[in-house]
Amino acid sequence: MMSLSLLAAVVWVLCASVVAFLPLRYQRPPGLLLLLVAPLLIWLLYRDFGLLAAGFGLFALLSMFRKPLSALLRRAAVGRETGGPRP
């Protein structure tokens, strides 16, 4: 029998694959939801299977969301350097 955390990880990957097929303008809301759910899922994998499984989950998350996360980090860095958000 498959554990609940592993089943949730499989469903998350399938949902992420479906979101990837959507046009770019429709990817934002479900992608944000996937990004918000991922830390909980990685913690569940860590709890049930250990550090190696959580490491693979974190690597997959960072690999899939590398461009959105780097854009968020750039925005945060630009906002800090100039003393506030850009107009």
UniProtKB/TrEMBL annotation:
Which domain of life, per UniProt? Bacteria
User: What keywords tag this UniProt record?
Assistant: Membrane, Transmembrane, Transmembrane helix
Q: Which residues cross the membrane?
A: 44-65
Keyword Transmembrane included in the entry's annotation: yes
Q: What is this protein called?
A: DUF2484 family protein
Q: Which organism does this sequence originate in?
A: Tritonibacter scottomollicae
